[in-house]
Amino acid sequence: MRVLREIGRDVTAVARKLRGAPPTVGQLVSTMSHDGSVVLTLSRLAEAARRHRVPLLGGVMRRLQTSLFGIEISRDARLGEGVIFLHTVGVVIGGDSRIGDRVLFLGSITVGSVNSGGYPTIGNDVVIGAGARILGPVTIGDGASIGANAVVLRDVPAGAVALGVPAVVRSRREPRNTPPSPPSPTDDP
């Protein structure tokens, strides 16, 4: 029962990410009832149905996801362990996108292609802000963050932050809009 092991690992990973480690039984039950966990479970069941060549079941699961939770996940997309859909409405994961482990989706996000030119690969432990668009055959490195409403059209290295339209990539160590420091009184003109 591979699918049950996958679902169990997903629930445990999500509970650890959201509530701390190790999760209690109550936290696991609470996590299982969260919309995002139900969506991930439906995805695992649809994938298992396709793997075992059960006709129509995968399509029914995808339609349930879309109609009940407002999320569209392509049948060819691959989701890593413990993917977190904090808000499911408006999330679209297209084509053969690859999503790593413990990726956090904050809502109204599109992961797709531009003119059928390929789909994104997203690393582990990535945070994707609300309204973000990740388009084309780009790679988002492990631990990266995508800002709210950012439009990512280029690769984002591990640990970096992508902000804006089109997204500008910054190192986490790079200061944001810090004003220059005033000259010290001992500086000679």
What features would you describe in this structure?
By secondary structure, this protein is α/β, with parallel strands linked by helices. The chain has a single domain, classed as Hexapeptide repeat proteins (UDP N-Acetylglucosamine Acyltransferase, domain 1, 3 Solenoid), CATH 2.160.10. It has four helices and 15 strands. Helix 1 (2-19) crosses helix 2, helix 1 (2-19) packs antiparallel against helix 3 (35-51) and helix 3 runs antiparallel to helix 4 (57-69). The relative contact order is 0.09.
Keyword list:
single chain; 189 residues; alpha/beta; UDP N-Acetylglucosamine Acyltransferase, domain 1; six-stranded mixed β-sheet; five-stranded parallel β-sheet; 4 helices
Distance between the termini: 76 Å
Class from helix and strand fractions: alpha/beta
How would you spell out the order of helices and strands? HHHHEEEEEEEEEEEEEEE
What is the overall shape? Answer: globular
CATH topology tier name:
UDP N-Acetylglucosamine Acyltransferase, domain 1
Strand order of the largest sheet: 3-6-9-12-14-15
Give the overall pLDDT as a whole number: 86
Instruction: Tell me the CATH architecture.
Output: 3 Solenoid
User: Cα-atom Rg, whole angstroms?
Assistant: 19 Å
CATH superfamily: Hexapeptide repeat proteins
For the record, the count of structural domains works out to 1
